[in-house]
Amino acid sequence: MQSISVHDLHAGRDRPLIDVREVDEFTAGHVPGAVNLPMSTLGENLHMLPEGAFDVICQAGGRSARVVEALSARGHDATNVEGGTGEWIASGYDVES
Questions:
Q1: What is the CATH number of domain 3-90?
Q2: Which end of the chain lies in a sparser environment, N or C, as judged by fewer CB atoms within 10 Å?
């Protein structure tokens, strides 16, 4: 499974970021530019995934890792953000709400 750190993400990547947390978690604060596609609804919204490579984030890295594994098995070029939004915030990086 491909993974990056929140520091790599913050340094800048030219690819979409999918946040798989639930809507209430996302609206409470998320990485700027992230698009919310909750893990619980992802199966019915696969058509909404970007074409090409993209990154996947959750709160701590567990849900996003499971999503990346499942999507990679389906042929998607997905990368997990280790540490998730929690580590992003703990690192002092800005969030949108």
A1: 3.40.250.10
A2: C
